[in-house]
Amino acid sequence: MATAARAEQARRFERLERLTQRRYLLLLAPAVLFLVIFYGYPVAAMLLRSFNDPAWGFGNFKPLTAARTPIEILGVSLPMNAYLRVIGITLQIAVGTTIATLLLGYPVAYALASMPMSRANLLMIFVLVPFWTSILVRTYAWMALLGTDGIVNEVLMGLRLIDQPATLLNTRGAVYVGMVHILLPFMILPLYAVMRGIDRNLMRAAENLGARPWQVFRSVFLPLSLPGVAAGCLLVFILALGFYITPSLLGGQRDIMISMLIQQQVVQLKWGFASALALVLLVISLIIYLVFVRVLGVQRIFGGGRR
Amino acid sequence: MTAKQSERAAHADRIGALGARVRFDQVEKQYPGGAANAVDGVSLDIAPGEFVTLLGPSGSGKTTTLMMLAGFETPTAGEIWVDDQAIAAVPPWRRNIGMVFQNYALFPHMTVGENIAFPLKLRGMPRDEVTRRTREALDLVGLPGYEGRYPRQLSGGQQQRIALARALVFNPRVLLMDEPLGALDKQLRERLQLEIKALHDQLGVTIIYVTHDQQEALVMSDRIAVMNLGQIEQIGGPGELYDEPASRFVASFIGESNFLDGRVTGFDDGLGVIEAPGVGMLRAPAHGGCAINSEVALTVRPEKIVFADELNGASANTIDAEIVTVIFVGEMHRYEARLGGGQTIVLKRQHRSGVGRCGRGDRVRLGWHVADGRLV
Ligand SMILES: Nc1ncnc2c1ncn2[C@@H]1O[C@H](COP(=O)(O)OP(=O)(O)OP(=O)(O)O)[C@@H](O)[C@H]1O
Ligand SMILES: [Mg+2]
Fold first, then answer.
1. Which pTM value belongs to this model?
2. What is the DSSP code (8-state) at residue B370?
3. N or C: which end of chain A has fewer CB within 10 A?
4. What CATH architecture does domain B256-375 belong to?
5. Tell me, what's the pLDDT at A3?
6. A2-25+44-302 CATH fold
7. How far is residue B94 from each of residues A235, B46, B78, B109, B367, measured CA to CA in Å?
8. Structure ipTM
9. Where are the domains of chain B?
10. Chain A 144-183, CB below 8 Å of chain B: which residues?
11. What are the angstrom distances between the C-alpha of A172 and each of A156, A233, B263, B352?
12. Do B107 and A206 touch (CB under 8 A)?
């Protein structure tokens, strides 16, 4: 009798639990619905176009593999395998930007995480303010700074370090400067979040056990901050892959990224080829994401990663 | 040399270490922005191999005291000595002082074996010796074969033992423990208290232990330093603190105590005589500090108070009281009684002496031997 009652109770409890879980799913519904209708469907339709516009098949992917397809971009005729080259440049710029933001962002995040909370929150504003300004505005600001008669050149000439304006704008360097500047917060924020979560007592324990400060960093702090490094790099890298405004305004004629190529095709109403290029970008992003998750575990990248 | 000491010396010869003497000399610490001194003139002389506990309420400066010894805080005044070396200029990583943190501070990204091997590798020990010593340390804390586990795969008590093994594996001459058992349940806590005590006897390392659990301090320590507001109120053996508390704070912090407020009216043969309003004249051994007419409290432990007819020949205080509550607490009855002036006192009597003797509302006559009270 007692066991039957208890079993009944357990069943009721289980049902309640299932119900609660279902209710959480309900909370997701509006966002999911919105994404499916206004994002999922158009993306799927667009990607489908890479296979059926103008005709069914892999025709849109041909130019990517064809060895010699002269192509004109922004009025310049690029050599044979232009598309693959653009993909190569895109990857190169994304990797370079990721490494540069990591090298610049890690010490900043480390300093912020070592400060008392109140001061860190104050200084965090300097990380976030640029974040709130439009990318376009910030890119134009860099154009004003780096132009032939820009402030940088004026100062350098004023100091008589150079007597001719240097070409700073429309170079690969300018692309890096602009992209690193814009993407730096995306590196600092996840790094900071993970570093804040590292128990300071662990560092004290290491020191107590005989580790000098740099040994403490290398054997305790650095390994524990790696989930933040992974999250930051993943975020910055994938954002950098799709960058458009900054490289097109700051870059030179040879600094063409895949999103600019896509835009070119769209302008020429070559929807099918544009879709094919977009699909390539998506696949690259997914592969990189999967590699990160595989190596580090999604758990450790997105929160819950403390232990 | 006592047997225990010679045993320790022999052991020290074997493992090449023996506890160090630790001396705090008028040490002060004021945190930047802190109003009062977190540690305020602490002087403490700890003998080699001694087990000393810092006991005190939250915020009394226990952790700060340990942190200064470990090198994570710098004293604003005073000097700390380990053996005959002033350690102010020695960085934490060269102090060779073991420490067990309250939350264990095990490295989550290293296995148990790597955690314990960490201090050994830093000291450049050859690999096979690292392996051997790691194994020995795990044996010592009763967790052989746990090398490959990660800290998150261990229970709280097991993590505690690993932290202890890691703190001991490099043979530090001083071991600091900051509320190491605070996060464990009562049963486990009591078992580990005894294990740590046994390890201490076996290794002869000097241990400075922090707790705010007076029971734990009484069970484990050779001496207890009771801290309050950054100062040491009293230091002594467990029995000494219990029987001869130097202040009201110590008496209330260690064990349960009654306090009867009164005014000193005179001295009689080394005893202070006080008048407690509504109670009458009471006598108790006086300490140096009380003067005629000063306001003092007479403190007496609940188990020292008896029913007046149980008193034997020795001189005693007796008072009239009315029982207000009787509680059965296992091996004892606990009575609360109201005195004439409105003050209440608590007494505890063994079963047989108290059973059926009195209940709520009864008027009784209580007493205690003069020597069992104390003016504070
Ligand atoms: N880093 C700090 N900065 C400023 N004040 C501090 C700091 N650490 C401790 N204090 C202050 O110093 C005093 C003593 O603190 P401490 O941590 O030594 O106390 P404790 O005896 O260990 O207490 P608990 O039992 O709560 O651990 C407290 O008043 C505390 O607020
Ligand atoms: Mg503390």
1. 0.81
2. G
3. N
4. Beta Barrel (2.40)
5. 76
6. MetI-like fold (1.10.3720)
7. 41, 21, 20, 24, 58
8. 0.82
9. 3-96+172-243, 256-375
10. none
11. 20, 21, 89, 95
12. yes
